[in-house]
């Protein structure tokens, strides 16, 4: 059997990858995907802990995270389309009308 | 009525109103005025505030298997959020006049956002907190980009969205780790499980992650980078809303999680939050000094105010909750008022942006200039305004707990902050060169006269700021009650005991 710590370490690595690519990547869609990666790392952590504690709470939480992530994706993609319409670019370095 | 219905009555009222507004909006002829929908939304908001007051008589009640708890604490924040949304709606009734935007959806989103914020303040289960946080965030993401034809609007929206979701992921990871350390996601059970937790380090990491997540939401330094851009690009009434109500809700969550969920770690998180508080105050005030855009300046000022508020967390639990709740009330009143004035002065197209545009406002719009001066004086913390007592209680609570250093830094910061507020006030009362050269330039301004609903909204905000500054007793009493009830153990109250005829 795989020890619980392995799942946690994998989740931590995934979460850190998400944080790193959020900070490094320049394309809005890629940045958005890295947030999804972070959320999935959280889901993995929840499931691992739910197994460890023999409690269903953690698994229920995962369902809610997935539902909310879907709602967030709907709104996020709509905003991305709005930004592409006005600026014709998805590079965050060029989305900088308000730097003083 | 069952206790479950009573516990969520304000949210239920708002949700029904919001859904109705959405449905009616769909059948109205496009292009016609949506003012009636706005008035309907206003009625719903007032009803929901009244419903929150109605909950006060039941004391502490838990509902939905202990995931929702109504007490003086939740009622305080419910009424506050309802009041902020009310003033915002009044101020934006005529905001969309002459613009082909979906004003009905705007009103509905304000109401849905308020539902989420209210849910955050009455949840004692982190799952519910998360859902409330997301309902409120998703609504405000859309509202930030409501002027979608304007590039700055969409830019503000995308920045708010990306950083907000980033923060949510941290918050969630914190919850996951807390669940791992204690085996529960209920705040009370986390507190109980902490003592016997085999992994205290993981529990502390969980709290740190939660503080980072909330820190983004309340725009505390060093998690504040999104604030100036978002506030600058979003419509002024929306900024008034999102700089106050969601922050109040996020602070309520932080108060509950730190004082009720992790009381055993108090010295450690108090130090962490103390550092964040000092950073926010300093960075906020330094940043505000350099800004030319008024909305941007107020964004930095709101970072500084988040810092003052976080000072309260270093005090003893009861004082901390009471003074923080009172400060949030005063901050909301004056900030929502300041942005209501900006809405009136600069209008939908934001004709007045920089301090230069505001120069000589007293000659063109004397009442607006006087109101803005009043709100700015309150943001400084001049006596006879709400801002004074807010700061007074927070800093005296911190001193009471022996944290002199942080109170001294806070006071030095508020003294320093006078400079940029007074600079703007001085500009308001200076004759501008533009006025001399182009007389009658006023025609360019879309709002030459303030409409009645906006006037009512402004009066409410000004009255609240004034009353909190002269007669703070009642509100302070409620804030103290909030502090006492949210800390009291609730084993007995979890039994539904209310009977309504």
Structure description:
The complex is a heterodimer of chains A (100) and B (501). Chain A has three helices and no strands. Chain A is mainly α and 100 residues long. Chain A has a single domain, classed as Helix Hairpins (Orthogonal Bundle), CATH 1.10.287. Chain B has 501 residues and is mainly alpha-helical. Helices cover 73% and strands 1% of the residues of chain B. In chain B, strands 1-2 form a two-stranded antiparallel sheet. In chain B, helix 4 packs parallel to helix 15 and helix 5 packs antiparallel against helix 6. The longest helix of chain B is centred in the first third of the chain and has 32 residues. At the A-B interface, helix 1, helix 2 and helix 3 of A face helix 6, helix 7 and helix 10 of B.
Task: Please give a handful of descriptors for the protein shown.
heterodimer; A: 100 residues; Helix Hairpins; 3 helices; B: 501 residues; mainly alpha; two-stranded antiparallel sheet; 23 helices; 73% helix; disordered C terminus
Number of helices of chain A: 3
- Enumerate the spans of chain A where pLDDT stays under 50 for 5 or more consecutive residues: none
- Tell me how many strands of chain B there are: 2
Largest sheet of chain A: none
Instruction: Give me the strand/helix succession of chain B.
Output: HHHEEHHHHHHHHHHHHHHHHHHHH
Label the structural class of chain B.
mainly alpha
CATH architecture of chain A: Orthogonal Bundle
Estimate percent helicity of chain B.
Answer: over 70%
Instruction: Output the strand order for the largest sheet of chain B.
Output: 1-2
- Please tell me how large the radius of gyration of chain A is: 17 Å
Shape of chain B: globular
Q: What are the secondary-structure elements of chain A, in order, as H or E?
A: HHH
The poorly predicted ranges of chain B are 437-447, 492-501
Helix content of chain A: over 70%
Largest sheet of chain B: 2 strands, antiparallel
Strand content of chain B: under 5%
Number of domains of chain B: 1
């Amino acid at each position: 059997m795989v020890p619980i710590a392995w799942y946690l370490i994998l989740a931590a690595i995934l979460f850190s990858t998400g944080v790193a690519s959020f900070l490094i990547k320049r394309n809005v869609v890629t940045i958005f995907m890295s947030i999804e990666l972070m959320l999935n790392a959280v889901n993995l952590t929840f499931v691992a802990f739910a197994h460890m504690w023999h409690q269903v709470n953690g698994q229920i939480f995962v369902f809610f995270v997935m539902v909310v992530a879907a709602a967030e994706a709907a709104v996020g993609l709509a905003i991305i389309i709005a930004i592409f319409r006005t600026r014709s670019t998805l590079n965050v370095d060029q989305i900088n009308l308000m730097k003083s | 009525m069952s206790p479950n219905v009573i516990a969520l009555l304000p949210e239920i009222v708002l949700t029904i109103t919001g859904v109705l507004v959405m449905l009616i909006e769909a059948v109205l002829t496009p292009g016609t005025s949506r003012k009636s929908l706005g008035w309907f939304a206003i009625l719903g908001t007032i009803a929901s505030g009244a419903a929150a007051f109605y909950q006060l008589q039941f004391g502490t009640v838990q509902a939905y298997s202990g995931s929702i708890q109504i007490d003086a604490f939740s009622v305080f924040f419910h009424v506050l959020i309802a009041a902020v949304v009310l003033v915002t709606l009044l101020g934006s009734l005529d905001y969309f006049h002459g613009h082909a935007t979906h004003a009905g959806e705007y009103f509905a989103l304000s109401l849905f956002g308020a539902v989420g914020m209210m849910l955050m303040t009455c949840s004692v289960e982190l799952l519910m907190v998360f859902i409330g946080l997301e309902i409120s965030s998703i609504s405000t993401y859309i509202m930030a980009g409501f002027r979608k034809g304007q590039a700055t609007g969409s830019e503000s929206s995308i920045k708010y969205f990306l950083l907000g979701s980033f923060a949510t992921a941290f918050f969630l990871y914190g919850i996951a780790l807390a669940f791992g350390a204690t085996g529960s996601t209920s705040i009370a059970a986390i507190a109980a499980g902490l003592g016997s937790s085999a992994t205290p380090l993981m529990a502390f990491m969980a709290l740190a992650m939660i503080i980072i997540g909330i820190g983004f939401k309340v725009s505390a330094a060093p998690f504040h980078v999104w604030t100036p851009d978002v506030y600058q690009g979003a419509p002024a009434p929306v900024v008034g809303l999102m700089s106050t109500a969601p922050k109040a809700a996020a602070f309520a969550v932080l108060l509950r999680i730190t004082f009720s969920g992790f009381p055993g770690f108090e010295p450690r998180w108090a130090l962490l939050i103390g550092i964040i508080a000092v950073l926010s105050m300093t960075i906020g005030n330094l940043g505000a000094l350099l800004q030319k855009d008024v909305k941007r300046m107020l964004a930095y000022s709101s970072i500084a105010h988040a810092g003052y508020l976080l000072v309260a967390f270093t005090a003893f639990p009861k004082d901390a909750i009471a003074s923080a709740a009172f400060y949030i009330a005063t901050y909301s009143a004056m900030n929502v008022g300041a942005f209501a004035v900006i809405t009136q002065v600069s209008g939908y197209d934001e004709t007045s942006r920089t301090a230069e545009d505001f120069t000589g406002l007293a000659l063109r719009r004397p009442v607006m200039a006087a109101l803005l001066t009043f709100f700015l004086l309150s943001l400084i913390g001049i006596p006879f305004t709400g801002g004074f007592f807010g700061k007074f209680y927070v800093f005296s609570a911190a001193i009471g707990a022996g944290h002199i250093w942080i109170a001294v830094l806070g006071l030095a910061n508020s003294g320093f902050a006078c400079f940029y507020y007074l600079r703007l006030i001085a500009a308001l009362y200076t004759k501008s060169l533009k006025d001399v050269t182009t007389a009658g330039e006023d025609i360019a301004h879309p709002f030459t006269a303030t409409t009645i609903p906006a006037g009512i909204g402004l009066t409410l905000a000004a009255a609240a700021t004034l009353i909190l500054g002269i007669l703070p007793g009642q509100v302070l009493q409620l804030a103290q009650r909030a502090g006492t009830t949210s800390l009291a153990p609730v084993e007995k109250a979890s039994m539904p005991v209310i009977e309504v005829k």
